[in-house]
Every structure is written in C-alpha cells, then in structure tokens.
C-alpha cells in the first residue's frame, strides 16, 4: 500500500462545522482522491464558536483551500461571507458546499441534489403529492427545496418550535407559488391528521440518532403511518432508526439518510475535482463507518 505524502501542490478541502468527530466525509473524499490519484487532502475543520467563523473562513482562504463542506451549525451562518450562490443554495437558504475560485467563494447546496436523487432512485413520484417534513433546520430547507423542484403539491412543516416552522413557511411562500405550505407544532394533537394524509414523511431532526442526547427514539407517534406512505429518515446512524422500524411494521416504504449523504458528497467532489468517485466503494466505506459508530456509542 503506498502512502500519500502531501506537498506544496496539495489541494486542500475539508468539513467546516462545530463538532465533527463522527463524520464520514473525510474517509469518502480522501479515498476518492487516492483512487483517482488526485493530489488533495480533506480535513476536519472544527470552528467551535460562531464568533470565530469569519476569521476561520479568512484563514481557509489564506491557506488557499479549494473548497469545503459546511455542516451544523453553519449552513446558514456562512451565507454573509460568500460572494455568490447556486440557484439551489439560494432556494434552500442554506449552503453545504463552498467552492473557492481565487478567493471568490461560491455557495452550493448539494444536500438538495442528494435528497432529490435518493427520492427519484427510490421510485417515488413527488409530483402532486403531499409531504410532512419534520424539523425546520438546514436539512429541512434542503429537503423542501428538493421537493419543490420535483413539483410537490403541498408541504407541511412540523417542528418542535412552531415559530421556526412558520418562519420557514414564510420564506418558501415568498419564493414558490405552485406549492402550498403550512406549519404545525410537534404535538400529537396537531400532527395526527396531517401524518395520516401525507404521501411522504421526512424526518430531518436528530431524534433517533445514536449521538442524540435527548434519549428520545421516536420523533412522532408512528401509529398514524400507513402502507401507502414513503417514510425517509435523514439519519444514517443507525441505518434503521426506530422511526423506520415502526414505519416498516406499518408496511410503508422506508429510506435512511445514507443515499443522501453519499450523493451530496459525490456532487461536492465533482464540483471541486470535475471527476466522479467510485460509487460502490463509497457506499461500502459509509456503511462500514456507520457500523463502527455503533460500537463507539
Ligand atoms: P439543525 O439546522 O440544527 O435543525 C435541527 C432541527 O431539528 C430543528 O428543526 C430542531 O427544532 C429539531 N430538533 C432538534 N432536536 C430536537 C428534539 N430533541 N426534538 C424535536 N426536534 C428537535 O440541523 P440540520 O442541519 O437540519 O440537521 C438535522 C439532522 O439531519 C441531523 O441529524 C443531521 O445529521 C441530518 N442530516 C443528514 C443529512 C444526510 O446527508 N443524510 C444531511 C443533512 C442533515 P427547533 O427548531 O425547535 O430547534
């Protein structure tokens, strides 16, 4: 096995976020670089406090990073420091990938592309359907932007803080007139009928994740799910959350967050290198990393 030794030509990329110890992205991108013989490195870029974000970004520019991914909690916070956006990032109001062209930073949202691809590959036709999206953070923005592109008829945002769901509804209403938007609180009495009437249900909250401190395993009461629905949980650790297990028992089609994770990474890789990584290998790496996370937890 040959060892990669960086030199002064090595292009730098990374993942910018607050807490990154569980991220799979470095394994995916570094394997992609080595497989394709690209002189590049993908690093963990932990910025512990939001007040240092601007200086941190300036430092990445000074070090001539070719680009970086952005994760919790900076997907929206990074926007003021960018020079331009892709239309999907603008639609989502969130950025998960940055491209640095000679100091000019452009924001992209490859989560939108990743989720869209997952939904299409699952064979679910979004056009004229009704979705309940649980959560109102960065991931919810990407999911909703993706669904709008696929001509969804109606989306209901169900969130712990109803005010955040309402805010998101207003943002999307301003941008998009063909889709109907509404908000509800994450209370059984409010979401019960909404869940029953939905074709697609997407959990974008961290509830059910191994590292989630809340200890709560189910974000909603699964009693209202049925066999005509497609239930997606953006969580990929564990690969089958309690929500997906319960949805499966009800006969619903289910999907975890791994395809979106891999496809968003693939889209970022292509944006930076203009090349495509080996898809099967990335899937194997991601699944192996998730299995190792289970042991750590
Ligand atoms: P975020 O911006 O911090 O938003 C988190 C959302 O979850 C908020 O709406 C928050 O509600 C809600 N929430 C948090 N803790 C909760 C709890 N204990 N009970 C109920 N609701 C809770 O985070 P994000 O970027 O959207 O990411 C959310 C999740 O999606 C994470 O688990 C992340 O790993 C996953 N994700 C996966 C992929 C993928 O590729 N598969 C991509 C992106 C994100 P409030 O508004 O009330 O605070």
Q: Name the CATH superfamily assignment of the largest domain.
A: NAD(P)-binding Rossmann-like Domain
User: What Rg do the Cα atoms give?
Assistant: 19 Å
Q: Could you tell me the mean pLDDT?
A: 94
Task: Name the shape in a single word.
Answer: globular
Task: Report what the structure shows.
This protein has 10 helices and 12 strands. The model has no long low-confidence stretch (mean pLDDT 94). It is globular. Helix 6 links the parallel strand 8 and strand 9 (180-185). The chain is an alpha/beta fold and 297 residues long. It has a 6-stranded mixed β-sheet with strand order 2-1-3-5-6-4. A 6-stranded parallel β-sheet has the order 9-8-7-10-11-12, sandwiched between helices. The structure holds NADP nicotinamide-adenine-dinucleotide phosphate. One of its GO terms (molecular function) is NADP binding. Keywords: Amino-acid biosynthesis, Aromatic amino acid biosynthesis, NADP, Oxidoreductase. Homodimer.
Summarize the structure.
With 297 residues, the protein is α/β, with parallel strands linked by helices. It has ten helices and twelve strands.
Helices and strands in order, then pairings?
Blueprint (H helix, E strand, L loop, with lengths): L10 E7 L7 H11 L4 E7 L6 H10 L4 E4 L13 E2 L1 H6 L4 E5 L2 E5 L1 H12 L8 E5 L3 H12 L4 E6 L2 H14 L4 E6 L2 H9 L3 E4 L26 E4 L8 H8 L3 E3 L2 H16 L5 H18 L1
Parallel strand pairs: 1-2, 1-3, 4-6, 7-8, 7-10, 8-9, 10-11, 11-12
Antiparallel strand pairs: 3-5, 5-6
Helix pairs in contact: 4-5, 4-9, 9-10
Bound molecules: NADP nicotinamide-adenine-dinucleotide phosphate.
Protein name: Shikimate dehydrogenase (NADP(+))
InterPro entries: Aminoacid_DH-like_N_sf, NAD(P)-bd_dom_sf, Shikimate_DH, Shikimate_DH-bd_N, Shikimate_DH_fam, Shikm_DH/Glu-tRNA_Rdtase
Organism: Halanaerobium polyolivorans
């Amino acid at each position: 096995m040959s060892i990669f030794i960086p030199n002064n030509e090595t292009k730098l990329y990374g993942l910018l976020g607050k807490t990154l110890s569980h991220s799979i992205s470095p394994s995916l991108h570094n394997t992609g670089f080595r497989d394709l013989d690209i002189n590049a490195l993908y690093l963990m870029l932990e910025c512990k406090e939001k007040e240092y974000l601007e200086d941190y970004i300036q430092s990445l520019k000074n070090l001539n990073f070719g680009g970086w991914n952005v994760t919790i909690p900076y997907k929206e916070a990074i926007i003021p420091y960018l020079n331009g956006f892709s239309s999907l990032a603008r639609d989502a109001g969130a950025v998960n990938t940055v491209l640095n062209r000679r100091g000019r930073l452009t924001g992209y949202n490859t989560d939108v592309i990743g989720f869209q691809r997952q939904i299409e590959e699952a064979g679910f036709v979004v056009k004229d359907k009704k979705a309940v999206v649980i959560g109102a953070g960065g991931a919810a923005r990407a999911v909703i932007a993706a669904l709008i592109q696929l001509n969804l008829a109606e989306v209901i945002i169900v969130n712990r803080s109803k005010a955040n769901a309402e805010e998101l509804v207003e943002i999307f209403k301003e941008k998009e007139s063909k889709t109907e938007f509404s908000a509800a609180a994450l209370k059984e009495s409010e979401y019960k009928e909404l869940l029953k009437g939905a074709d697609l249900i997407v959990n974008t909250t961290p509830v059910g994740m191994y590292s989630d401190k809340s200890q709560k395993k189910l974000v909603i009461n699964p009693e209202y799910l049925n066999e005509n629905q497609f239930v997606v949980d953006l969580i990929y650790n564990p690969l089958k959350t309690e929500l997906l297990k319960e949805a499966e028992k009800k006969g619903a089609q289910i999907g975890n967050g791994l395809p979106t994770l891999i496809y968003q990474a693939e889209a970022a890789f292509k944006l930076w290198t203009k090349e495509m990584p080996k898809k099967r290998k990335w899937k194997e790496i991601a699944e192996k990393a998730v299995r190792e996370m289970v042991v750590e937890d």
